[in-house]
Amino acid sequence: MRPCIFLVAVLWIWCCGLPISCSAQKIYAAGRGLMAKSLESAAEVIDLAGGNSDRSRPKKLLYLGTAVYDNPQSAAIDTANYAALGCSISALNVSWIDPTNYELDTAFEEVDIILIAGGNTLFAVDRWTKLGIDNWIRDAVLERNAVVAGGSAGFISLCGGGHSDSMKPESYKNPVGPFLNPDEKVRDIIDRSWEYIRVPGLNLIEGALCCPHYDTIQNNNVSRANDFSNMIRRHSGEYGIAVDEWAALAIDGDSYRVVSRANHTGSVGPNGEFVPGSSGKPGIWTLSVDSSNGNIERKLVPPVGKVSDIIHPPRWIAEDQMVMIARAQNPDDGKPAAWTKQGSRNYRPYHIAIVLAFGALAGTIVSLYWRIKRLPAHAYEELSFVDANGNDSWEDPEE
Predict the structure, then answer these.
(1) Rounded to an integer, what distance in angstroms lies between the CA atom of residue 228 and that of residue 89?
(2) Percent helix, strand, coil in the chain (nearest 5)?
(3) What is the pTM of this model?
(4) DSSP-assigned beta bridge partners for residue 296
(5) Predicted pLDDT of residue 16
């Protein structure tokens, strides 16, 4: 009889649309990549994964460096503190190589921590979606209780969408080089003339429109906080969550904790107000549009609480049309990244310049020779007039 009662109860809850249990996902989302890979954060992520109490095997960490195009130098730096704390490190390199099912199965098998690199969010999420890696990540986090951690692009990729610098030329897999822009000042102008765009994420932090680096101004000289407010106005159906560079949102099921590094600056003033220019302490904010007047409502996230209190499903989502342009400028074309050709962006093809110079000199010499041999020595020459009778002396008839 009891099993029948239990079954009826489950069916009643399901039919009423009430959740049977909250998600058990574990997420560590930092406002900056440097924050996510710091020693303190590494220890906090490992604790979120259950700590190192199980001495039978080390924590298995899978590093996804797709956003930095699997640069081995970035991988070594990003995982160094995790390795120092006893994690077993592996990396899945898929920026221009399609993995086999065996490689995917091996990479995600018994994984405890997935660490996502900062970099170009749009390229990474698109690449994972194309290869089906997004489903492997979701399965590891939602079904097998793995922790997923990341900062900057690693944070945005976990959300429903994000305020991204994925149109920043220097973040492209093969950025514009000096052969087309021989003047470094020109290249610098190109690198700075970009706009923030809304990019899609994996939606593990369901429905959230996220903004990392909230307290900073990047090299396009645009305040991240001001621009995110404008984005929220354009995408008023979504709710924003903004994280300062030295803050992180640690999620365990439906509970969260705000991580704030006391030895760094942020956007939280002494009385809990927003202060621009990183003149306060690090913190996290929620943003939404007041439908009555169109103003931005910005609220400081309490130190601890329920995820459902600060993150809400969107009323609607408006895709950013600039995403299509960003994809065209930084295509998933199967070509290796610029880092495989070390210094390629700063490489100056002097040998080509020398060949062109010699070609120009040779052309000048040939031109001068032709002028000397083929053209008269003076700027004028005497003309011989011939009359109708064939005489070469001709008089003006008017004289």
Answers:
(1) 35
(2) 35, 20, 45
(3) 0.79
(4) 289
(5) 39
Q: What single string gives the DSSP state of each residue in 171-199?
A: GSSS---TTT--SHHHHHHHHH----EEE
CA distance 84 to 347: 36
Q: What is the CATH number of domain 26-171+197-309?
A: 3.40.50.880
Residue count (the chain): 399
Average pLDDT per consecutive 10 residues, the chain (399 residues; last block may be shorter) = 44 38 79 97 97 78 98 98 98 98 97 98 99 98 97 98 95 73 59 88 96 94 96 96 99 98 97 93 97 93 98 94 96 93 50 52 64 49 45 44
Write the DSSP symbol of residue 216: -
Domain edges within the chain = 26-171+197-309
If one counts every other C-beta atom within 10 angstroms of the C-beta of residue 214, the result is: 29
User: Which DSSP symbol is given to 298?
Assistant: E
- Strand ranges for the chain from DSSP E: 26-30, 60-64, 88-91, 113-116, 147-151, 159-164, 197-200, 205-211, 239-243, 247-252, 255-260, 284-289, 296-300, 304-306
